[in-house]
């Protein structure tokens, strides 16, 4: 039968390995969170944009309470 000190040593070793693994996982999560986002991730969805001019191509359920025109007739200026 193993001695009490041997069992305690194994227990402490397992705790140390578990702590190192969780610290490594936390470090990996921090690295992933600090990576720059892509343009698509930064822009998000069109419906959440408070500066949009109209409701063109925005689903009815996501349009919000602010009144905006519903048409998609964008006029081109003479400069284009």
UniProtKB/TrEMBL annotation:
Signal sequence extent: 1-25
Basic and acidic residues biased stretches: 37-55, 63-74
Residue numbers spanned by region Disordered: 25-80
Highest taxon of the lineage: Bacteria
Entry keyword set: Signal
Keyword Signal: yes
Protein name: Phosphate starvation-inducible protein PsiF
Organism, scientific name: Paraburkholderia steynii
